[in-house]
Design a protein that fits this description.
Elements lengths: L1 H19 L15 H7 L14 H11 L23 H4 L5 E4 L2 E5 L4 E2 L7 E2 L2 H5 L2 H14 L7 E16 L2 E16 L7 H22 L7 E8 L4 E8 L2 E7 L5 E11 L2
Antiparallel strand pairs: 1-2, 2-9, 3-9, 4-5, 5-6, 6-10, 7-8, 9-10
Helix pairs in contact: 2-3, 6-7
Length: 272
């Protein structure tokens, strides 16, 4: 009888031990999961974003306008047109985001809400803090690229492509690390019609100043493009909560919502 009890206990412990170990998850095929914006650009540049190609300002505007209909480039305003922008309480700005600047006697500002590429992360994703931490460097590179080609009357556009290796893959309740994610950052500037080139450069300087905060807004929970994730780490035997980054497009305006002057895009695709 004593031997039977001992054997039963051993079998029970074996079952518990096997259950505690995480079930092996087979690697799944890589679907890039390109966003609608990326697919549109690929009609002109098939290898975008990984081949390093940069769409023209017009190609960028056309693709963004397909996603955000009824938006057109601002026309020159008559002197007797009055502009009114009421003051609004900005909860995001209270947490450190600066979303306005005075440029050419008008208010240059970020849209309150970006247009998001859905509500869920891709198969491979990164946490929002991984995007925010790169904002300074990315914006500096975007500025340098636009300045290198001399911004013109029709504006300018620049792309920065980051091949990230610190991504994650959530399968079931498990989280796999060291996944590859391609993050594409794109800044497109399109000044109002008939604006002098000196004023365009002043406008561009203001847009550069808001770039960092624009990326931060896109990657801010409740205000930007994010997804809440709950996952379990078997090695820690603990459940965690995190905020994953979702791609999005944030518009900038000069003076009024009818005068868009720039679009800031953060885009993701899977890369193994």
């Amino acid at each position: 009888m004593k031997l039977g009890i001992t054997t039963g206990v051993a079998v029970a412990m074996s079952i518990v031990s096997v259950s505690a170990r995480a079930a092996a998850i087979p690697a799944r095929g890589v679907d890039p999961q390109f966003s609608p914006f990326a697919k549109c650009i690929q009609q002109h540049h098939a290898g975008f974003p990984k081949d390093g190609s940069t769409p023209t300002p017009q190609e960028t505007r056309d693709c963004i306008n397909q996603l955000q209909p009824h938006v057109r480039r601002a026309e020159a305003l008559d002197d007797d047109v009055l502009l009114y922008e009421p003051e609004e309480t900005n909860a995001v700005q209270a947490r450190g985001i600066i979303d306005t600047a005075q440029v050419l006697g008008k208010q240059l500002y970020l849209n309150k809400k970006p247009r998001c590429d859905g509500t869920e992360v891709h198969d491979n994703f990164v946490w929002v803090e991984d995007i925010v931490s790169q904002a300074d460097r990315v914006c500096s590179q975007l500025k340098d690229k636009i300045d290198a080609y001399n911004i013109k009357e029709d504006g300018g556009v620049a792309t920065v492509v980051d091949l990230l290796t610190n991504g994650h893959d959530k399968q079931g309740h498990q989280l796999k690390d060291n996944r590859h994610v391609t993050a594409t950052f794109l800044l497109s500037i399109y000044p109002p019609t008939n604006m002098a080139i000196t004023d365009i450069k002043t406008l561009a300087a203001g847009i550069y100043d808001l770039c960092n905060d624009g990326i931060t807004r896109i990657a801010t929970k409740n205000e930007g493009c994010t997804a809440d994730l709950k996952y379990y780490r078997p090695s820690k035997a603990k459940t965690y909560h995190g905020v994953g980054a979702v791609g999005g497009i944030l518009r900038m305006f000069l003076g009024a919502d009818t005068n868009p002057v720039a679009d800031l895009t953060v885009d993701f695709s899977n890369d193994g």
